[in-house]
Amino acid sequence: MSALALALAMAAGPALCGPTTAHADDIRDREQWVLDAVSAGKAWKVTRGKGVTVAVLDTGVDGSHPDLAGAVTTGPDLIHSVAPHPGRLHGTWMSSLIAGHGHGSGDGMIGIAPESHVLSVRTIADPDEPGYKTFRDRPEYRASLAKAIRYAADHGADVINMSLGGPNASEPERSAVAHAIAKGVVVVASAGNDGDSKSPKKVDRNGIVRLSYPAAFPGVIGVAAVDRHGTPAGFSDRNASVLVAAPGTGVVGAGPGDSYWVGEGTSQAGAIVSGVAALIRAKYPDMAPALVAQAISTSASHRPSGGWDELVGFGEVNANAALAAAAKLSGYHDVAAGRPGRFDSAPVDPVQVERHPPGLIFLGGWIGVAALFGLAGALITTTMLILRIRGRGNADAEAGQGE
Fold it and tell me: Is 267 assigned a catalytic role?
């Protein structure tokens, strides 16, 4: 089974419950706990994500949904030849968590970065699409993610959201992620939903889940899921790829048409963190991906007792605190551009100089002086020996000539 096929089986399959019967004016109340959990309201006093493009590499997005109208650009459909009937359910849901702007005041879905823009690249298929099980191992499907990452990076994406994953570390995907990060794109991926699996092939006896890619690729912000109390979700993967966590249970979102869905998964958690990354890039558009990740991780709330663990990483994402952390990092400017990297205009000295006790430095100086005198003495002695040898040689030569 390909990485992408398993990705959607994990990320979308168990996450989809039936569409809600609520009207648009009920949705905001249902999602309010998520907005409160990540301090979105406070963050919006700083920025709402205007000017930022988030590429959603997913099952396609219904840009006509009232909560997303005018906020979606439809990119290429990379799997049309093998899946010509896009479901657009999972992709629309994730996009609404990132950039939903609601029907109006208090109505409909509002995302974490409600003034950001979505670039939709159809990369995977919804499990209920016709032919899903038969085409998922086709070459077009297996190659779609790497192509999608590169397309997004080359067409203006500031953030890439991948609410998907699988166990195979594809070299084209690894290379594509590196390409995106090198271009300054923040890359976010869901950690996976195998945490409650009983299979020894997926979870070891210590509860550590096998790595999922692209979340486990270097530079990618891997996201786990927690519930409304900040408790790790049982289904959420636990491994070294987890940087932070976000709400992932009972999360409402928009679907195709004018529908709304509620469900669970690290997919939702990943989309929420992508929204936070969009807020940071809106305020600090030139901030390097590594610094965005640092701002998100160092400001997380509900931090584990040891500072980090495999369940929630550094803790639950906090949009307002992440913006404050980014402000402190904003003085650092990555100017590598093909040369050895350095940071300029830092508000504090990033290099801690180790200062030795004066006595030790004094002693070290005397050792150096002694070494110099020793070297000089050795040179003088060597020179004298050479002269004596030469003198003896000349004397012997003269004696030989006399015989």
Answer: yes
User: How far apart are the C-alpha atoms of 61 and 44, rounded to whole Å?
Assistant: 25
Round to whole Å and give the CA distance between 76 and 376. 75
* Residue (of 339, 345, 328) closest to 291 by Cα position: 328
pTM: 0.80
3-state SS, residue 363: helix
**CB 175 within 8 Å of CB 37:** no
Query: Catalytic site residue 356?
Result: no
Q: Which of 39, 58, 158, 297 is catalytic?
A: 58
DSSP string over 64-87? TSTTTTTSEEEEEETTTTT--S--
Q: Is there a catalytic annotation at residue 90? A: yes
pLDDT tens string 170-209: 999 999 999 999 999 999 999 999 999 999 999 998 999 9
The H or E element spanning position 237 is: none
**Residue 337: CA count within 13 A, CB half-sphere:** 4
Vertex 336 angle, CA 332 and 338, to 5°: 170
The predicted structure's pLDDT at residue 54: 98
